[in-house]
């Protein structure tokens, strides 16, 4: 079997008495989508934050591409190829859509210590940015101010910026949130193709998307992974049905 | 041409037109005022790189302004008293040459900003304001208590420093010199804002998390912005000291930091020509209202209040409307 590209080993994180991440181990293999589901407050975003670098775990390790990255900063992890999208859109709101995408391309190129020539006139950066916007279907909004975008469009821009980074692994925190049915369906199709470029660790509430996309699913409840398996296995897992899916059925 | 471009051009030309008119009318004092506006605007352009682009609210920029002033004062003081700055390990003499003084001022300002910035930028928000203020005040009291260069009384320089090929004692020639420097720095600051560094720096102001996620370090971006900002403000300080032929701890006081910030806020935070408009308005008010009442600062305060409450883009924002993304 191939080596996992991303490996989380016995991760623990507590906030006072609350165990937000309780001995979590998880792997992400090349070309796969590994979905992370769980009820609200299960600690999904806390886990993603620890993988991306914004939050230090109390114990445990995060290995990326055969290297222990637990001690690295967010910036160093991003540079080594972790491409993250945020649950709550985190963009430069005064900038145009294109400027946000160019910022991503600039981060990827690393050529930020340039002080004289206009960045928006830089053809390679601009082309990379426009290509990413085209892929998520935002290119006709390129000149719009990001603050004027709809909520769903901002979600797509998050994905586009992540694309410009050409990451080795995508960490996506609820990319479908607020997209609406048709937008959600389009993005599902897009992510389906994206996995061949880089595997995706996907936190998502949209169950249709999760069961359509995920090669493997892990279920997180109260900071603990109670099951990991294929969509079929997860659907029939009694503990999962009780803890999570059952609640949804009842609702 | 957009309204903003027209306005900027008008603002920019206002200074030389005023100076020329004063020359024709034989009003050297007005030329000196125009020179003062150009120099203070330059200090504001420096602060605006940190404040406008980087979102770094520094209440300690008088430190750099004063360091530039003292760079000029100390070098010229040694030159006019014919005493060397130091004899061992090598002989270092003072100088009356402006270009040399400017280089020293810029380097001293940049180094001070590097040291102050490296520590201050570990904090943010109100703590950053307080720590920059504290550094500024530290230098202020240091200058007061250091007798070698005049202490509280400051240093007087008898003859203005020289620039090759110019008679700097002639007000109009010194004005042209200061104005050309302002123009060059404005040009470079404009290029900087639109360059890759400017895009990333301004993004770090809007959303630091976003910048980290694309693999760029907000701390390093901000530190370099602070260094450039300090260097430009120090250059303005050297020119200001030369204008007055005098440097004193007043240039280092938090009062001065506040004034530089007022230029930026009056004109419009983050607007390239904002400090030019702000400094011009400030000097105009100082001389029109100052002639009517010693308490003219009351009206300045009122104006500042109105700008902050109703015209967040400053005067330029009021006249030219919301900034369109340069694209």
Task: Please characterize this protein's 3D structure.
The complex is a heterodimer of chains A (251) and B (327). With 251 residues, chain A is an alpha/beta fold. Chain A has helices spanning 44-52, 74-80, 97-109, 123-136, 151-164, 180-194, 207-213, 231-236, 238-250; strands spanning 6-15, 18-28, 33-37, 59-64, 67-68, 82-85, 169-173, 200-203, 216-221, 224-229. Chain A is globular, with a radius of gyration of 18 Å. By secondary structure, chain B is mainly α. In chain B, 71% of the residues lie in helices and 1% in strands. In chain B, helix 3 (62-81) runs antiparallel to helix 4 (98-120), helix 3 crosses helix 9 and helix 10 (254-267) crosses helix 11. At the A-B interface, helix 2 and helix 3 of A face helix 6, helix 7 and helix 8 of B.
Which short descriptors sum up this protein?
A: 251 residues, alpha/beta, six-stranded mixed β-sheet, four-stranded antiparallel β-sheet, 10 strands, 24% strand, globular, B: 327 residues, mainly alpha, two-stranded antiparallel ribbon, 1% strand
